[in-house]
Every structure is written in C-alpha cells, then in structure tokens.
Design goal:
Largest sheet: 8 strands, mixed
Shape: globular
Helix content: 25-40%
Number of domains: 1
Order of helices and strands: EHEHEEEEHEE
Mean pLDDT: 94
CATH topology: Rossmann fold
C-alpha cells in the first residue's frame, strides 16, 4: 500500500509544529520518525521535544541509538541517511525527498514560510504526484485543509 502524503504549508516554526504533530501521533499510539535537514537541526528538535510542552512526555531517541527500535519517536537527519526502525509516520523537515519514503504508511512534509523552503517543497509535491500518491495540503497555522 503506497503512503499517504500530507503537506503542512506556511509553518511559522517548523520544528515546533513537528513536535506537536509527533506528540499527537505518539499519543494515539503511533510510531514516528522525524527527519531534519542536518545534525544541528536534529539536536535542536531533540531538545525541543524535551521542553516544548510542560505536561507532555514524548519518548524519543536519536536515530542510530541502540534503543531506537524500542522507542516510539526517532529523530534523524538527511546528512546521515539510514534505515528507520519504524514505518508508520515519517515527518520530513529536509529539502529533499526522503530515501525509502515508500516504506511508510504516511509521510508528512512540514514547510516553513520562506521561499527557500517553499521552492524545494514544490519539487517534492511534484515528485509524489508523479508517483500517483494520495496528497493532502494543510495550512499549518490554521490547521485546516487547503
């Protein structure tokens, strides 16, 4: 079964949105992979997951950790591609199409407000469209379908 692909456009703070969406997914029992563009962004996302919401605990580890297969949320980045231990939801914050995205049930693309973020997102949209995957677009601020 091919993955469904959702695009969250116009995110004011893409990492914060990723934390919120990952926490919701975890809260509903799903396993999540979070993919950033680089190691620095992955570390920033890791720190944000520890502190973004006072009452929420999102158990997570960095990709490559010995505990990754046992942990519901895994954080990785495009500079160190590797196999993800989970195949439910992949949140992509990098500019490229994630290698192996086809293995996931759902791919969620989170796009910021700058033209530098929108341009590669358009190319990813076209890539998924050419693969005839089911696509949905959402406004990240209003959290409603476009």
């Amino acid at each position: 079964m091919p993955p469904r692909v959702q695009f969250y456009h116009n995110a004011e703070h893409p990492l914060a949105l990723a934390c919120d969406l990952a926490a919701r997914a975890f809260g509903s029992g799903r396993k999540v992979a979070l993919r950033t563009a680089d190691a620095a962004s992955a570390r920033q996302l890791d720190q944000l997951l520890w502190s973004f919401e006072q009452q929420a605990f999102v158990p997570h580890v960095m990709a490559g950790s010995a505990l990754a297969a046992e942990t519901p949320v895994v954080v990785g980045h495009a500079e160190a591609p590797g196999e993800w231990p989970h195949t439910e939801i992949l949140f992509n914050l990098a500019d490229d199409v994630p290698p192996g995205f086809e293995r996931f049930r759902m791919v969620v693309e989170i796009i910021g407000q700058s033209e530098a973020q929108k341009r590669p997102a358009r190319a990813r949209w076209m890539h998924y469209k050419q693969k005839d995957l089911p696509l949905q677009a959402f406004d990240a601020i209003r959290r409603e379908a476009l």
